[in-house]
## 1
Amino acid sequence: MALDLDVVRNIAHLARLELTPEEEQLYLAQLEHILGYFSRLDEVDTTGVEPATDLCVKGTEFRDDVVTNSPSVEDWLANAPSRRERFFRVPKIIE
Amino acid sequence: MSELVWLSLAEAAERLERREFSSVELTEAVLRHIEATEPKLHCFLTYTPELALADARAADERRSRGETGPLLGIPLAIKDVILVRGVRTTAGSKILENFIAPYDATVIRRLREAGAVFLGKLNCDEFAMGSSTENSAFGPTRNPWNLDRVPGGSSGGSAAAVAAGQCFASLGTDTGGSIRQPAACCGIVGVKPTYGRVSRYGLIAYASSFDQIGPMTRTVRDSALLLEAIAGHDAHDATSSAEPVRPYAWELDQPLAGLRLALPRECFGEGLQNEVRTAVERVVAWFQDQGASVHEISLPHSRYAIPTYYLVATAEASSNLARYDGVRYGLRVGEEHGLLTMYGRTRARGFGAEVKRRIMLGTYALSAGYYDAYYLKGLKLRTLVRRDFEAAFTDADIVVTPTAPTTAFRLGERTADPLQMYLSDIFTISANLAGLPALSLPCGFDDQGLPIGIQLIGRPFEEDRILAAAHAYEQAHDWARQHPNL
């Protein structure tokens, strides 16, 4: 499970982070250092231990699915980096 | 009127109630104090004096119509990861540098209903990731007790502003210690409520199974008042609990006789600053003198808390932060090169080094081939950490630890080594892994004059018990009356 530059590049691609070659080297070294410390988890046999997937003491509350007033379309679009009429504008993705 | 800024929130509320001064007068005194001290500290990312005075006038008007309440007309400030409608909210990040919040977070809505006055938005580590506030894209905040030291983090602006008298209370958020560790560094009270106690609607998400909003104040009573105002179920946050909210401030006077304290031996080992150890031991001895019992326990999985937290929390962060893609809000870079380049370049330019590092770590922990070894392993360890606490609480009411292994460190001291920075949270992280309520309480100073904090951890939804114990200690000591010279 050793980390190398290809793995770092693949993670960066999955995370949609454009890294410079310097950053790739830096994160490779830092992640190796951090994961080295984390390897102490291997000391613990977790066979049969349930993963903690729910922190809510009494479970999640349900509510009726009813329409409520959220901020207006105009409020949401006010932060858009680029817009046209009532839409977010993005680069063309299908030629 | 400058002495007004050092009143506790509860004292200020009483004197407003007696009409000794108006909220406008109180707010003006606070604004003058902010303007005098802020150049040294840099607590605020967005400062809104005009909005504050408008809130103050509205509060005075409500009072003149007969309304009362402990927060009516009280100036507060808010960590910049919580949305305040119409005000810029940056999360300490370039990627949200110009983002205007389109709605109020539930905690803000509740504070508005209670008549609070909002002074502005406080500095923090970018997306609440960090332990020193040095990861803010807008420059660090300085510790009011010593300007060469960090205020802790990630809620460093919130802690420093309260310690410096710039507001009567602030809201912080705590994912791995981000309320308690800066509270300890700045000599104030900070409370991380039980997971589910306070709604996160309108909080910019970092790690959703950990994040909690909580009060940061100069006294325990003030935290109790603020928690009471913000806690409770919210239909907008499905993880918020329907457990009834207790009248925390009314329940502060509880007897200490019979209280059972547990000290985890893992928290008193190597790496603990001597003065911190001595201060914490003195607090424990004081509780014993009051009739509390004290016994040593073991939390055998605490040595795994840091890696467990950093695997699970960064995995959640990598998913939560996927939304910053330059499409709907925030920075957009490189759209002329197509959508994929736009995503990658926007995120490369918008996020700082620590945020990228955590996204990388979390993406790795979740990625095909590594999921079982890292993310799933982390979730299983989280179960074991929770079980350690369940066992401890069968014959203890409160688990006591130092809040942090050292007092506030120097600016720049830990920035070169991310792992060293992560270890600042070694005592606070377990309460987040287990979802437990925990607070940090001032309990002395080291020989450099830097504040020391002690942490009290309670059972789920027993905020009342840790607040009452903290209040009793605070009443018998004068730490809450000491303020930094600015």
Note: Residues 2-257 of chain B form a domain with the Amidase signature (AS) enzymes fold (CATH 3.90.1300.10).
## 2
Amino acid sequence: MVTKKVTYQEAIEEIEEILAKIENEELDIDELAEKVKRVSVLLKSCKEKLQKTNEEVEKILGEMEE
Amino acid sequence: MNGQLTLLELNNLIRDALQDAFPETIWVVAEISELKVNRTGHCYLELIEKDSVSDDIVARARATIWSYTFRMLKPYFETATGQPFSDGIKVLVLVSVEYHPAYGLSFNIKDIDPTYTVGDLVRRRREIIEKLQEAGVFDMNRELPLPLVPQRIAIISSATAAGYQDFVNQLEHNSYGFVFHYRLFEAFMQGAEAAPSILRALDRIYAEEENFDAVAIIRGGGAQADLSCFDNFELAYTVAQFPLPVVTGIGHEKDDTIIDLVAHTRQKTPTAVAEFFISGAARFYEKLTELQKAVAERTREILESHAETLTNLADDVVHSAGKYLTDSQFRLLRLGQRYKNSVNRYVALHAENLHRFHSRTSKFATLLLRKERNYLARLGRETRFLGKSQLDHNALRLQQLEKQLPRKVRSRLLIAGKELAAREATLRLLDPQNVLRRGFTLALQNGKIIKSVHEISETNDLETRFHDGAVFSKIIKK
């Protein structure tokens, strides 16, 4: 279900899109679980990317500050 | 007087005439074109005057300052002007006009007014500055961008000068550990040779301009007085137009020289020049550190803000989905309620209909029942009527039967009695008691009559019943 090619920005946009749909109740309740799951997957992937970036950045900054 | 004079006589006449003509001392403005001090301390000068426009020499005269006077005048002049008493300067001097028959005309300098020279120097400086400004070069060097970190420095100085050593020490032992590349281009830093030799040094630097970021012209301490060589138009003109930024540290606290004025940056001492380069590098280094910090900070901020966004999004989704579900549930509940209400209404409506129908039905039923009852009653009446005639008929029959019954019963009883007696006789014959009396016995086991040898059990006693009693015996053999 998660396509690895989704960029961070795309993921955020997709989450926001789903969120808007949920908020505006444009979503069929049949889809809700699926979409919420999708959001959780996207969020997880984003968090992982962020965490990874964070680690990399800290490493680079650490080297820089040496 | 015979119309002839000896040279001496003439010269003596000239001397006397001059003495009469110039009995007093006179203040004279002149430029020193040559200056010599002999072993005995007497100073011999050549004074000139130049045409202000053409610069041609329009007057010339010899002058002397006797050692006795010169010993006093020289330091007085130099202290007052900050300027060596040397050739090339304009002076206001108090002279007596003297004529010696053997040596000719000469002015004996008795006094000097240094304020004239000071003023003249100021004027000359102003003239040089004006000329530079007119040439449009005055600000040129200052307008050059100094590299962010000037690390390759061409030094114009004399190798033996203390100021040069100070400069090199300062550069090499800077507290940051920055590395500077420098090369000395030697030049005289004072006297008449200074300007031309500095110009030659600049030429050599210019030839490999690309190897340097800046030029430092430095001179340590030295005679405070000897700065006039830096107020030189040619030198200033070249420095101003030099393609590399020039930093001066000529080692004086007083008025700036013209070189200082046209240089990119003017520092007071060679040490200050070194400090200028070091602090420039330090500023750059600090800026780098700041940028690095800013990058780190901003990067962390961005990451944090993204993390926050993600958390918010997660919260939002949880919240929205929850709300959505709650809403849906509520809607479902409401739908259920509506359904229930509808059903109730429907049921109520139909119940009423039913009731109406029922009451209509019951009326109808009552009617029907009554009808039916009437029908039944009629039927009953008819039946009763029919039954009565039937009963009457049966009663008659019964009466007949009643009449016939005793007779029939009696004959029947008679027959029965006869049959009974016959049966009694047969029964008597068959009575087992009578059979036993006739010599038959009954064999029993467990009170049961044994009718066959096969029925006998060997383990139980065998009862043999006679008409007057019974014996029990054991089975010995079967």
Note: Chain B touches chain A at residues 292, 295-296, 299-300, 303, 306-307, 309-310, 313-314, 316-317, 320-321, 324-325, 327-328 (CB under 8 Å).
